[in-house]
Amino acid sequence: MIYDNVLAAIGHTPMIRLNRMNDPDSAEVLVKFEGLNVGGSIKTRTAYNMLLEAEKQGLIDENSIIAEPTSGNQGIGLALIGAVKGYKTVIIMPDSVSEERRKLVRHYGAEVKLIHDEGNIGDCIDECLRTALEMAEKDPRVFVPQQFENENNPMAHRHHTALEIMEQVEGEIHGFCSGIGTGGTITGIGEVLKAQNPDLEIWAVEPENAAILAGGDIGTHLQMGIGDGVIPKILNKEIYDNIYIVTDDEAIDTAKKLASMEGLMCGISSGTNVAAALKLAKKLGKGKTVVTVLPDTAERYFSTPLFED
Ligand code: PMP
Question: What ipTM was reported for this prediction?
């Protein structure tokens, strides 16, 4: 089979059972490995859907400039699509995100604007958004997808990721958990899986230093892509049954084990998700099935503690 371009190859990522990391008396844990997605993360799906819908609605054309505030993977996804479709793309990101992310965005031919993170990622993301909106005010060609409030973000997961999961698992899914950046993943996948099985237990997962849904304070943490310090508009706050908090050490330790015990080269938030999934699997017990996602690949974390001994 030949794809017309790389965008046609987005999605259809594998679902993989955890073996050595999981306790045989627990529920089975299945992980959807988005590190193997085009662009190396789950966010290529949402970037693509937001731009496709903007094209359909006539909000963008070949002269448009895409400008988006993002802590990383969404920017990489938009830059990739910009490269294929010929859109000029400007990604506005906190200077605290890994250097690899900036380099990847630039490598796809997009421009990077860095905003200084003074220790509060939420404030910094707000500043990134202000910068993007100012660009749009000054230049009518600028389109800001606004992933934190764009319904076409969770829609990508309702229409694609969730359906792939159901097709891959076939049998009943008893547990699902996910960290929250924009909330697109947990909202889109959670809604579809819960409609299929109302007894499904969903856990929202937060970094210890950014557990704002649980009423905690916002600080710096290492679980990039989640815990951005804002409660996103598109997050369906009715969809989760429980909030589970993961420390940076636990996320990194789990991500390291995913590589060394399961051969899954994934990022820090994958460690977050799996730390929660293993706990949920223990709670639900043998014979049940827990699903989570590994949002991205490890190869954009070389400069972070994930690769320190
Ligand atoms: N992990 C990583 C590495 C991410 O880049 C993102 C996206 N910000 C997420 C998790 C969370 O995904 P979502 O935005 O759908 O909540």
Answer: 0.99
**Cα–Cα distance for residue pair 239/120, rounded to 1 Å:** 27
Distance CA 43, CA 57 (A): 21
pLDDT tens-digit series, residues 220-239: 899 999 998 889 999 999 99
Q: Cβ(271) to ligand 1 under 6 A?
A: no
Q: Closest Cα partner for 12 from 36, 31, 28, 29?
A: 36
The CA angle 104-107-108, to the nearest 5 degrees, is 95
Sign of the C-alpha dihedral computed for residues 5, 14, 53 and 109 taken in this order: negative
44 CB near ligand 1 (under 6 Å)? no
Residue whose tokens read 């699997």: 281
Which residue type does 205 have?
A: V
Looking at residue 134, what DSSP letter applies? H
Q: Where are the beta strands (DSSP E) in 73-162?
A: 88-94, 111-115, 142-143
- The rounded Cα 227 to chain-centroid distance in angstroms is 11
pLDDT mean over 247-275: 98
pLDDT of residue 128: 94
pLDDT of 66-87, one tens digit each? 999 987 899 999 999 999 999 9
d(CA 69, CA 126): 8
Ligand 1 pocket test target in 266, 269, 274 with most atoms within 8 Å of CB: 269
